Amino acid sequence: MKSQKPLFIALAYGFAAGAIAALVLALMLSVQHWLWSGSHADSPAYIFAIILLGGGLLALLQHLRHGGAASDGDLDGQLAALHAPVACKRRDTLLLALSAIVAVGFGGAIGPEAGLLAVVAECSAIVALALARSQSEQRLINDTGAVAALSGLYGAPPGAAVLVDENSRGHHDAEETPLALKLLAGVSGFAGFLLLGNWLLPGDFQQLPLPDYAALEARHELLHALLPALAGALLGVLFVHLHRQMPKLFDKITRHPTRQILLASLLFAALAAAFPLLRFSGHHELEHALAHGVHAGVWGLLALAVGKLLAMAICLAGGWRGGEFFPALFAAAALAAAMQSLLPELPLTLAILAAGSAIATVCMGKPAAVLLIMLLIAGHAAPVALFVGIAIGHVVRQLCVGTRAGH
């Protein structure tokens, strides 16, 4: 790639892709607020009806797009398809944007990552038609869009750059985009996301609402982090198993994508109607989960953690396009609260970060990216617990999941 064009793409398109991600996320959250902010929003009948309606809309959008299986919409799938040929039609972009907005807005137990990536990937294909003069430039545009969108969502350009970089290793169809350019695209994308997001989104979107934490000495923090990290890693193994088996289960019932979406939506609607905390990504519901623990007790909190993973697996297998990072943190918070009920001397924030980093590492299989993202969204609280969780999560993934793709 010659001259300053790669820098221009990383800076200019990165900024635009970050702004696009902020706009789509704002639309997701606006629909979510409109549907779920009333006094009736926790009524089982209302929850059941709204989620079924969302499933019906997703099935219709899937039918109109004429493409893909119902289970092709998780973060790992979107990253794997980042450099695949994309039908760059405005109609497809609009339908993808609508499906991403519906999945989050109608209460899906998923994060917005995959939906944002899908929309930005379609936009990248359109931009590549106008700007790319080689495979390397097309690859740079695709990488720039992905890194920019994830940088804005996570508030962590280094983590997003490493996440996309780790995913792209081993592709030899074109010159690899340098990590430095991906990082530049991430910073520019974060700026674009912030510029529009400050106007459209809550200001504290990326930060985790963690309880107050009085820091321990490093060696005490390490010892306290071991048990929640191991428990979180095992919870991650459970999710990987559910995520692999759920599409196979749906395939046994029906191979028709729109019917799979309707089936999954029916199951998720029933589950969420019985346990309303299973809705949404869980990022902003973390405080509610911890408050719920006061009444639910240990078994109730454990059921909430497992239920969140089950709901997420159903959604991802059934066409509710999304990511697993934020729901995994919610499950980790419920697990940590359960452990603190049994071990009162265990600091809750430390347990959440140890379990959360472990489960995220097992689910995503990218420890460096998880570390960089967690360091920025969790602030300076319990850094030793983060390292312990990621180390244990990585070891457990290698032993229990193997080197195969987690999904």
Attribute tags:
407 residues; disordered C terminus; 15 helices
Explained architecture:
The chain is mainly alpha-helical and 407 residues long. 74% of the residues lie in helices and 0% in strands. It has 15 helices and no strands. The longest helix has 36 residues, at 218-253. The two termini are 34 Å apart. Residues 403-407 have low confidence and may be disordered.
List the helices and strands and how they pair.
Blueprint: H1 5-36, H2 44-65, H3 75-80, H4 90-105, H5 113-131, H6 135-154, H7 157-168, H8 179-200, H9 218-253, H10 257-274, H11 286-317, H12 325-342, H13 348-364, H14 367-377, H15 383-401
Concise description?
The protein has helices at 5-36, 44-65, 75-80, 90-105, 113-131, 135-154, 157-168, 179-200, 218-253, 257-274, 286-317, 325-342, 348-364, 367-377, 383-401.
Q: What is the succession of H and E elements? A: HHHHHHHHHHHHHHH
Residue fraction in strands: under 5%
Backbone CA Rg: 20 Å
**What is the residue-mean pLDDT, rounded to a whole number?**
87
